[in-house]
Amino acid sequence: MNKVLVLCYDFSPTGGTGILRTLKFCKYLPQNQWIPVIIHAKNRNILKFLSNSPDIMFNCRRYSSLRSKLFEYIGILSDRYLKSYRYIFLPDIHIYTIIPTFLKVLNISRREQIDLLYCSCSPYSFAISGVLTKKIINKPLVVDLRDAWTLNPYEYYPTILHRKFDEMLERFVFNNCDSIIMVADVIENKYIDKYGETVSNKIHTIPNGFDSLDLQLIEPENDKFIITYTGSFYGIRKPDSFLKGLKRFVESNKPNDIEIHFYGNSSRLVEELVNKYNLSRYVFSHPFIKNKEVYLILAKSHLLLFIEPSSATPTKLFEYLSSDRPILAIIPEGEASKLIRKYSIYSCTTPESEDRIAFFIEKYYNSWKNGLFKIHSTRTEFMSEFNRENLTKRLSNIFDHLCNQ
């Protein structure tokens, strides 16, 4: 068995969808002859949690934590000052942890006789720590970008100089790592256009996916028509257009058997908009829920709401698609819309199309009202392509290739 050192910021089964990518890789890597040695910055008590959770147990050779007061203070700063910290901290708020992280990773790598380094980003500072470690121990480095770095549409740069400096750091990592993993072809193509041969021979796409063991195969109840959204709102990702469309539908139909449920960390924003549009009778806001609960919530829904202003393909999309429920997608044309059209009963529209949003809500509502609601199953083809187990096999093949060169 080979050993891969996995460096990530968070590694919690109760964390967000981005964290699940790394956790599920580590769950299935031992099946492919790779033992993960996990180093992360949060959740000191996770090992106890894992040992009591047979559904997420995996063979982990060693557990180590980077948790410190420094990480805690940095997290507080980033939450309080948001855009202001970008004037000072590049590539991210964790820049001052690069050297401490490097020393920790170097120590564990030598002690455990690591065969390969794997960094899950963001934060991108971890990738710099990974490059420094690679230069000392001379082992392959794989950098997994869960989101685009400098090409991220949500990224904020105070000046062009800040962007140029961050691009310099990105180029440093790309030049010195052995493989770069992207989550979507569209991101891979953008980076190939930007850096050309520098990345074209080392870049790969492994999409986000779902774990078939998490699926909940149940029928939704029929006393209410349930629309569900899971995830948070931030930046330009907002529910305004959907709620405006919902208001038009409600004013035209006066329904008494429809509920819209938002699950995530945006309760205040949702409640403000709900009150603004006088929709409190229909819309309910809930806190963030654990991954296992997500699948149960989706299975109890009749229509899933997907809002994404970019062409990103987050883990949430694969959770939606694996549920076999219709999807109302408010998105631009791109990678996400292609997947939805291929694997789901869908209605895609843009944020500006409030009339179309109202029309689609009415369409699915009337279908349910008339007893025509049916689950559309593409499970066999979809499971084969996007199952976490199969995606991890693709990752392990990259590991094997790098170690056998």
Summarize the structure.
The chain has 405 residues and is α/β, with parallel strands linked by helices. It has helices at 17-28, 46-51, 69-81, 98-112, 125-137, 160-176, 185-195, 197-200, 240-253, 267-276, 291-299, 315-322, 335-343, 354-369, 379-386, 388-403, and strands at residues 2-8, 34-40, 62-65, 116-121, 141-145, 179-182, 203-205, 225-230, 258-263, 283-286, 303-307, 327-330, 346-349.
Q: Helical region count? A: 16
Question: What is the end-to-end distance?
Answer: 17 Å
Name of the level-1 CATH class of the largest domain = Alpha Beta
Helix content: 40-55%
The CATH superfamily of the largest domain turns out to be: Glycogen Phosphorylase B
Q: Write down the CATH topology of the largest domain.
A: Rossmann fold
Proper CATH architecture of the largest domain: 3-Layer(aba) Sandwich
Largest sheet: 7 strands, parallel
User: Which segments are poorly predicted (pLDDT under 50) over 5 or more consecutive residues?
Assistant: 44-65, 67-80
Overall structural class, as computed from helix and strand content, comes to alpha/beta
Tell me what portion of residues adopts beta-strand conformation.
15-25%
Query: What is the overall shape?
Result: globular
Strand tally is 13
Order of helices and strands: EHEHEHHEHEHEHHEEHEHEHEHEHEHHH
**Into how many domains do the coordinates divide?**
2
Radius of gyration of CA atoms, rounded to a whole number: 22 Å
Side-by-side strand order of the widest sheet: 3-2-1-4-5-6-7
Average of per-residue pLDDT values: 83
Organism: Methanosarcina siciliae T4/M
Protein name: TPR/glycosyl transferase domain protein
Pfam families: Glyco_transf_4 (PF13439)
InterPro entries: Glyco_trans_4-like_N
